[in-house]
Predict the structure.
Amino acid sequence: MFSKKLHKKTRVQSIILILLFSLCNTHLTFGDDISGTPEAQQWVDSVLNSLSLRERIAQLFMVAAYSNGDENHVEELTELILEENIGGLCFFQGGPVRQVQQTNYYQSIAKTPLLISMDAEWGLGMRLDSTISYPRQMMLGAAADSRLAYQMGADIAKQLKRIGVHLNFAPVVDVNSNPDNPVINTRAFGEERELVAQKGLAYMLGLQDNGILACAKHFPGHGDTNTDSHYDLPVITHNSNRLDSVELHPFKRLIQHDVSSVMVAHIEVPNLEPTTKLASSLSYRIVDSLLTKTLGFNGLVITDALNMKGVSNYYEPKDLNYLALQAGNDILLFPSDVKKSISKIEKEVKKGHFPKEEIDRRCRKILEAKYRVGLNRFYPINNKDLISDLNSPAYKLLIRQITEQAVTVLKNDRVIPIGRLDSLSIAYLEIGNGMGQTFFNQLEMYAPVSYFSLDENQPSDSLNSQLSQLIDFNTIIIGYHNLSSYSARNFGVSNIAVEAISTLSKTKNCIVTLFGSPYALSKIDDIESVNGLIAAYDNSETTQSLTAQLIFGGFEKTSGKLPVTINSHFKRGNGIDAGEKIRLKYSIPEELNISSCFLQKIDSIALDAINNEATPGMQILAAKNGIVFYNKNFGNYTYTNSELAVTGNSLYDIASLTKISATLPEVMDLFSKKQIDITEKLGNYMYLPDTSEYKNIIISDILLHQAGLKPWIPFYINTISSLIPNQPITSKNHSSTYAYQLSPNWYLSKNTEPSDNYYKKNYSFNFPVEVASNIFAVEGITDTIFSWILRSPINNIGKYTYSDLGFILLHRGIGNIIRESHIEYLYKNFYHNLGMNRTCFNPLKKFDILDIVPTENDLLFRKQLIWGHVHDPAAAMMGGIAGHAGLFSTANDLAKLFQMFLNKGTYGGVVFIPDSTLELFTSCVNCHNGTRRGLGFDKPEPNPEKPSPVSRSASALSYGHSGFTGVLAWVDPEYDLVYIFLSNRIYPDANNSKLVDLNIRTNIQDIIYQAIRQSEEDYGQ
């Protein structure tokens, strides 16, 4: 990247300096204005005295630089720095690492330190890859809290300083009173002068309080134009009174508060400058007389880019640059023909046509600014951790805060937030093919939503066929994603999209969100007739995500107000305070004052678990205060197939979590409705022989696992042929951990096969129960299983012995009460309204196999990889639906259920279970007898001498359950915390105990508690 034309000595010196730079961690600092101190004046005088006239002129030139430029570009800048000693650079496109490298290099060869600038109105992401983009200023104008604008300025300042930039060409303080403005538009805070002044001042102070020179632009006001000065010279015809009261008002406010610089626009203002076609930037009346003398501005006066056609169309570059200097500008930005221009100005000065004293005065101003930003003691910028520093989660949190406040609800016919999901069939219609994926993904986190994309390129007469696909949906969420800021392009609004919105709003509940300039509202006929209308201002991923969350009630309130008038229906100040937190919110840890960096320890544990083959992959989710702050997926479905990566939509067999995710909600619901009494006997709810001791089992004893039942019966052993008796079963000759529970002891040969008396390969009337792929069990197999249970002895009633058998029995009893399928009952009473659209039994009936994570490679019973069927043999023999196992789900779905538990039975505005019922079932009802469990729920082990199912940090109020496949779900009311861990640790071998041996689930839970405690300590909570 270095110039080939450099002298050998200079090249060697530069390389040595750059090597030193890479070791240096010191950054320049910026405090109070010290440019008038004796030390400052001494430095400025010494530098000024070292400069020739030509070099003093060159200090007024700020040349464009591109960190993605080629070697020729670097050589051109090198030559200007070495030979002319230009004053500064303005960086445009490229990347932060390359820009820092070039900045260090250019500073190393500069005789006089370079003033580095950027046009970063909405952050570094406006110009550089791998960096953050903040919202445009209009979104800030929609948010009530000006402190957000200040903080954005502060954050951008920190990022600019990190890469060695001293001057940001921001804020825009143009009053955008013209909706057709093609160049300002959403770059403005709004159309009202005081709003613009207030927000602009906040942004300016945020920059300057944190060491970056701010620049108010575009003087005397570019807001009421309909021409883009990049391409032609706009004309503003307002009289002096209007200009003074509106356009100039924000500039006067910022000047009063010592803004560092002002950029002068390329606009023609006849009432301020009568000369035709003379831009403000070239007008002595506007720059010197009005800005400097009348308004008393004594900071840096900077031209807008001098390559813009608004001025470059009318002059040769050297003449243009001289005219800009004559007008009173201190810095000539983006000049062309720099050497010729310097030569022309030098000649004019020597001829006496331009005062040398003016050159000296302006050069001194620039040198004072350089001193102010610390260039008297410049230290190179260190590239170490540059990208992570520039992408701090704290910066991303501010973007979320701005967006939450700014998103503007313009109409809400009680559709935001969306209420009961059981009455809705929801479709998302994307306008802007492929541009709304984040929006759709977030919508799907809450409820089943079907995706459709409007083809705007199709002829209008094909619209009906497109919309016919939506006929079965009663709620349509429309995202308009491909909007434009240009009136000439109709703000990106197409006729077919307008017709689609109009047609749908007549027959459906429609919520429309405009992800772009709110001026687009004026181009959509009858838009005010939709049920819900949101102006979202931009199409960033953050905005898409948060708008979807607003629609479903993920956060408390948005109070955004339109900062501009659109038409008679939508005026400045319009906006409904809308939103209600009724469901989970999805955010980043910093919203809860939790460190993302600290939580990377979870990532490490998860990756180590995969590397140690404790499990091929996993989903991990944690939510506090109803905010999901950690939600990540790791690994793949198997160790050998990297193409099947775990996603948030991957369904896991959740094994014994079925007990508290399916059976227990049914029990609690029936209990609260007085349809089941847990103090009554099992025989009251299902037919049992009078002679059976099972008839007298108490329901609560089943829930507490103290009914005296055997832990497990290997039913499938009775249905397998070729068993060799009287041989002990060990882990060496059996692939399942169920082996140790078998009785009597049988030796299972790998040559064993499922008995033809019980199984066939094909479905038939007599063999209708699907156990696995190409295995169907005989009709009545479930009754046979119950008979086997009832023949097993009951021992030690009242003593804790964990058992699946009670939940198998309870499941049948519940079925006798509800008299419908369990899954229908669960969906009707729980899953549908919770939005648990990826939770089900027998997932292959609803999902593609690639959506489902496989479990064990069963070598003995089913002779296949168990993929899409339940792993638990008993549940499989009962057709995949049982009280103790069989449910498949995702971490996100389970989080909704467990958040409902944490909310004491309420979620999404719906009461599912009375709080008194939940309090009873989650309490440790038998702790006085040494049994830690709740009614169905597991609890932490209070005895430190005994192993606990969860982290020792879990409070006594907490509850949850684990599962054989490597899953855990836990709620801790004391910390307002939900923790979900799903894995398939039994792939390919159920004997794999590494997940437990390594304490993966509890170690991760430990990190979560540590992070929360650290947060509370840091913030004194």
